[in-house]
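Regression check, NAP case 492:
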Amino acid sequence: MEAVRQGKAIMVSRVIPVDPFDLVIFGATGDLARRKILPGLYRRFCDGQMPPEARIIGAARTEQDNAAFAEQVREAIETFLPAKKRDPKGLKAFLERLSYVAVDAHGEAGWEDLRATMRDNVVQAFYFSVAPALFGVLAERLHHFEIARKDARIVVEKPFGRDLGTARELNATLAAHFDEAQIYRIDHYLGKETVQNLMAVRFGNTLFEPLWNAQYVDHVQITVAEEVGVGGRGAYYDKSGAMRDMVQNHLMQLLCLTAMEPPARFEPDAVRDEKLKVIRALDPVAPVDIVRGQYRASGDHASYLEDAEAEVSRTESFIAMKIHVSNWRWNRTPFYLRTGKRLRSRKSEIVIHFKETPHSIFDADAGNRANVLSIRLQPDEGIDLRVTIKEPGPGGMRLIDVPLDMSFADALGPEVADVPDAYERLIMDVIRGNQTLFMRGDEVEAAWAWTDPIIAAWEARGDRPVPYHAGSSGPEEAAILMHRDNRRWREI
Ligand code: NAP
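Current build output:
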């Protein structure tokens, strides 16, 4: 299909069908499968990306037949996809692709049935959308019952361990049954359109890469702000906190893609080798460069403790930190990371703040401005570059910033505004056998190796998070972290 927009970008959208597959979703009755995985697969189906032989097999302990499972999936699609993203004609045909097998990861029941369902000569993929304690168990069972072929792929959800020791253990368990080339550790941030666009912007233009270093970049800000609190998953969250839940994986991945050297090719191991080098170049973070926060009740919002149903807790629902990547490219250029729950708005972005011009030829009252490139992940995915121009009109030379804004929706039209959800893209990458946007085992371990001492130091000191008001932009101390360096956070 070719879409040409008047006066706007010309784009050719190609939906490339994938090979026929059997995709087994363990945990098919669970929250993630219902909210993301199954609606995502339905969208790919409606887009014509699934060949007629593709099949999706739900698996969980609940005893039910194919019809009951199909009904559950129909409900999930209608609940979690807005009407404009649904195609009623496609729905019936999609539901016909589904079947269900009742399987208990710990028991013997169901495994022979599952094996009987699987076909030869199609791509074989198993999505582990179950509690992390079951990841290793499922890998072992698939092997034991001789269900997974030598070329089968497994998709492993987060969290991947809770420290270096547990991540190593899980890697070893998976490696006992599957090769690294078969293991897809998912981080859905890597499936976002803008995250891949970050690579396109950096490595597809001559404009940015020469400036992408300590000589021209003053600092980088990476923010993942959420409006929601921890209510509903408070018990889980309280054992984890923002560092484990967000920084070790999602923010670390965004940092890697921003800071890495150009890979020789856009190929899985070339990209992942470069990301790994970034993690290994991270300096330890001094306590004065970290702010941990926990939200207090404010307005209609309950406090963290109420949401987590805990009387006391030292778990952080917010973290801000200043990080150094110790290499030639980034020498003394700080990366400021910030993420939290119950903040003023939902906003994720990577922002490159360039240095001011070394010398201003204009009068002092003209002002001196610096360029800012922001890559928005949500909401409204897009890229914005602020450039300095003269303020129009009389009154002499006064400088202002104006945005060169590329909202994907504005620039490329509604078809592209409708970009596939991260899960849709990533599942199709699994079927295609492309691991570029998945984390390799050594990357995950390196990220934990950097994270562990930071958490251990908090625990040894009995560190308590500082309070911030629910619905605010985080604790005052986070603003001070920036002010100290004569910088300020972008507004949330
Ligand atoms: P969930 O709602 O608790 O669902 C768990 C699923 O596992 C259910 O389908 C459950 O069905 C099945 N299950 C439980 N015990 C089983 C067993 N012994 N054998 C076979 N199946 C079993 O969990 P979730 O929120 O969907 O999360 C799934 C995974 O995704 C977790 O690793 C989580 O950390 C990760 N994740 C979730 C989200 C999210 O937004 N939900 C986001 C990121 C990552 P039965 O009770 O019928 O067996």
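Comparison notes: The two ends are 38 Å apart (CA to CA). The domain at 18-157 is CATH 3.40.50.720 (Rossmann fold). No diff flagged against the previous build.
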